[in-house]
Design a protein that fits this description.
The chain is α+β, with helices and mostly antiparallel strands. It is built from 9 helices and 21 strands. It folds into 2 domains: 229 residues, Rossmann fold, CATH 3.40.50.300; 109 residues, Beta Barrel (OB fold (Dihydrolipoamide Acetyltransferase, E2P)).
Amino acid sequence: MLELKLISKRLGAMDMTGVSMRLERGEYFALLGPTGVGKTVLIEIIAGLIRPDAGGVFWDGVDITSDPPENRGFAVVYQDYALFPHLSVEKNIAYGAKSARADTAEISARTARLADMLGITELLPRKPDTLSGGQQQRTAIARALATEPKLLLLDEPLSALDTNTRTRLRGELKRINAELGTTILHITHEPEEAMALADRIGVMLDYRLRQIAEPEELFRRPSDAEVAKFLGIRNVLTVSSVQDDICEVSGQRIRASAATESTRHIWIMPEELLLSDQPFTSSALNQFKCTVIDWDHSDALLAVQLACGDLRLVALITYTSFQQLKIEPDRELYVTFKSSAIHCL
């Protein structure tokens, strides 16, 4: 088990303070955040490549903060692969096993097993400069796994790859985690990637770890407006005042059953918004006349941007509904949503 306790580090403009988290053995944990918030610095602190200014790194309850990298039994894979250009794929992977002081028979066995697991057996005789990006990344991961690490640290390992290769490697990483039981800490700036891979996700913004949660919980209940916006959640609205359960938002009165006096933001999932070309018969307060501003594709659905006076909303609808409602710029519609569908922050 890995545990970070109140890690702090200042490097230039970066001022990371009080980062605490815990990874269980065998867990796949994603550290999610935009570029430049300290994610790479944090894994290099875990790996022993950088010393924290304060706080501690613990493995199975033992303080390893001062231990050198080679004594930790961790492996790091960066997005630039860092393969030895003069060695074949086979020798690159074998180098990892040699560094773990395996004997000759074991080195050969590990190399063959990992090459088969990652689908690169036929590439073993080739040099890195003859490989695609995905093949190089598979080789780098195999080399790291050849050390049989207690913890595998992945720093944006898929960011330089095309969409199809990225999708395939996601599946392979998840399978490695399940079959080998390797504990994995995976850095990414892509919410979709974290959602697809991780058992739990930690969101890092402004050099702080803002929230840790399981994927579904994270996307349904972000801890604050900044986390929600980073996750790509639409309809995050600023509340100017609250009276009983009525929130004043951009000149509109919105009933939110969960609102309290401390509510500063609310958000509504776009799929919770219903559109009609006629007023709804419901007496619900959350019904507004609106105007279509624009729309864009969101997977198999269409995201329709709406103006209700100064209030801006986005609704997700099917293409069939898009046609039935005759969506076009400046088209007047009605939108409604339940007060229970509103999340308060």
